[in-house]
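Write out this protein's structure.
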Amino acid sequence: MTGPESTPATAREVATHSLRLRRIGIDTYQEPVIYMRSDCHVCRSEGFEAQARVNVSNDKRTITATLNVITGDLLAPNEAGLSEAAWRLLDAAPGEKVMVSHPAPLESLGHVRAKVYGQRLEEAGMRAIVRDIVAGRYSDVHLASFITACATAPLNHRETIALTRAMIDVGDRLTWGKDVVVDKHCVGGLPGNRTTLLVVPIVAACGLTIPKTSSRSITSPAGTADTMETLAPVELDLQAMRRVVEREGGCIVWGGALGLSPADDILIRVERPLDIDSEGQLIASVLSKKAAAGSTHVLIDVPVGPTAKVRSHEAAHAMSRNLTEVGRAIGLHVEVVLTDGSQPVGRGIGPAMEARDVLAVLQGEPGAPLDLRERALLLASRILEFAGHVPAGQGHAWAQRALDGGQAWDKFQAIAEGQGGLREPTRAPHTHPVMAPRSGRITGIDNRRLARVAKFAGAPLDPAAGVELRAACGDDVDKDQPLFVIHAQSRGELQYALDYVRMQPDILCVQASP
């Protein structure tokens, strides 16, 4: 979230540089945009051009917005339009007058340019960049430059620590009055791996505090917050989150509504369309939010597989070292678990279908996905032991008793009710099976391409969209047996996903029987 500055304009300035506001209802996602006519007196006198960054001030706030210039009659010469994001940030009212002016020079862009050319950033430079990002001074073009520079010239250990500290310092930070507060995170890249919704109620039912702040999807068909939102509200403020955690010992909420690491939420907004999630920024993103949420002990799940985000054990061990060392530098106890990333977890890929898998495990349904259950028990047991809550070797038994005895399901229901009420995941109206091209054995699943099918079908924006797996690695299948089923909200999105599948025939590789 960008942070508007409280610097009201003077009456004289408003008189000479003012425009009357008009709400024109354009959704620019989270980027503040102002629309002005090319022949309006402010544009002409100030020499503003399209894509310029301008300050917009009313009597309450000042924001920085990107200028789009209009040559038609959508606006009168004395009017300015604001995107929905800019309207909210300015707390604008229809017809009020605003002053539009040049912003102060953005000195921190010099550090971004240095990074683009391969130079290392010192802590002061990183802090200046993050401060300006949170203040709303960076356009999406500037953000994209910073994100791309950090991916092409990867952050080293010192830079990652500097970015993590800077992201913590510009946001709020929670405290819980406890010596041990636990958390869990997965680095992603594995469709259906929705263990958080199981781990939180298991661990909380065992007596630990686990205030889980989760992200929405960045490059995947569903983030933890997207999936939880199909079951209960996730956009809680800090006070509401605290009430749930203090009463139930845990929560599963969207971190973007809390202001705990606001720079991360702004960066994610641009990382999503770029489809970039570099390791240094991933580590800073994860650990800054854990520290800001008041955690002391964090377990990180790193799936490793040929089509997962982390593809080799060498890369996984290097990431593990970086996570634990950066965690130590900011005062967190971090433990990393390497897990199987060779194929998706569970059967559903997409928010609503992943939620139904979670409910099946929590409710002990006979056909519940065994791989999802076992992975969640593994992670919960490691948290219980890592945090010193149970003796070494007893974590799995504790976690299994909480799950099989119904305490985890009871705890999940209580958390959901505390967040606003448990609800039923929706179902998509359009489905289409994808059949095996031959009889044989499933020898591999391409996680990335399968995730792309779910995204082309509409996930996560359409919560019910995605993919339902009907086969796993090692299964024997017959010709024309369903391998997976595509779910979509519209026929157009269903066809879009099917067109992609036809161009990618071996998403599930079927090796012919001898």
